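re: ur msg from earlier - yeah i can do the zinc ion complex, just paste it... oh wait u already did. ok heres what im feeding in:
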Amino acid sequence: MLRSTTPSAAHVPHLLFALVLIFCCATTATADFSFVRNTGVAPGPTLLITAGIDGDEPGGFHAAATLITRYQITTGQLWIVPDLHPQAILKRERGEMNLKFAHIEHTDPLYDSVARIKTMVLDQQIDLLVNLHDGSGFYHPERINRQRNPGSWGQSVVIDQQTLPGIRFGNLEQLATVIITDISPFVLSSDEHFQIKNMDTATLDPDAPTLKSLSWFALRHGKPALTLEASKAHPVAVRTYYHLLALEALMKQVGISFSRDFELTPQAVARVIREDAQMTLAQGRIHLDLNQMHRNLYNFPLPADPQINTSGTNPLISLQPEDNGYRIHYGNNRLALLHPRRVQISADIEAIPVMIDGIHHQVTPGTILPVNSHVRIEPLPGYQFTLAGNNGSWPKLATRIDGDKVSVDRSGRLLRLEIYRDHMFSGMILLDFRNADEEVIEEEES
Ligand SMILES: [Zn+2]
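and the outut:
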């Protein structure tokens, strides 16, 4: 099932650019991988970027997801597959997908996914395949120590051979050299410089795993391929930073131009990963911030078939059936378990009148509402409001003690205000006291 969506206005302010997002089932079905095209208005080369072929390498798949949520391509295009092996990502395990490109049984559960990515690699629009991996240690052509030696993979650009003669972008070693030179001023410490790791795959023993890889499949079929390896020695955000550095150097080199809405530093990348942890449910009537979540959200109103609204959503976020509820996943992170209370949706209310810190507002269901001291909900004929876990002090409220056990977040400051009409669910507003003034809160409590 393919669905066309439009990008989130929050992350993509300039809609002049033709950015076509095609998400494949970023909801409860994860048998197949996501695929998003990020296309510039001006024609240019097309890169196919894959990540998540190994499910325990989050630097690669957060980098690919960031290209979807935070980059605008102006010239050329990216075809982005951030989660090539979704089941392995959910289980936080490596998986064996990258051993299945020389031969795969028809009965293999990965058969369809392998066939689909092969078709994409061979598409005549694709000029170059780039695989993102997180690798062990630090590759070095000579043995320095246990971390830094020819058997390690981290901080390398891997190629299968020097060139693929006669093919555009077949100058693999040169592409890798320019990437490494370009990014060297931005490497965080002198022992983290990237190296070229040339596998000389054609000369390997016939049983070598490299001969079964996606990258070698591409080369055998006349498609240039590079693999970027960020070291697993780094935190995830730093790995993601290195992937984006190297990808940007490659894009510049092949003539793909772009902009992004953040500064490329490890700190800003960490912030982007946090900010992208957002999920919208129930036809947009619930919006959850997925940071610092409680492990369990009880009595949570959900329709029988909760769908994540895919528009503008990070493709690494999904909702998976677990026990009698749903587990929220973000890449390798297992977040809250939603214990559902089944509801029918009533979608006829656009906004409710709310007094926030003494000022009137009209608030749309599905909003996270910053509050400093207190909230008062104005009466609205036909509608009922409940604050999860609250029994008293309504409608004036401002406490984290009340919210502690029922809050969406662990600080007890992100409270669920639920709106009903005749037992039908009209939406949820999260009252966000996380940045509230401590003194004001204590005064309101007394
Ligand atoms: Zn890998």
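cool cool. The helical segments are 58-69, 86-91, 111-122, 172-183, 214-220, 236-254, 266-275, 438-445. ping me if u need the other ligands too
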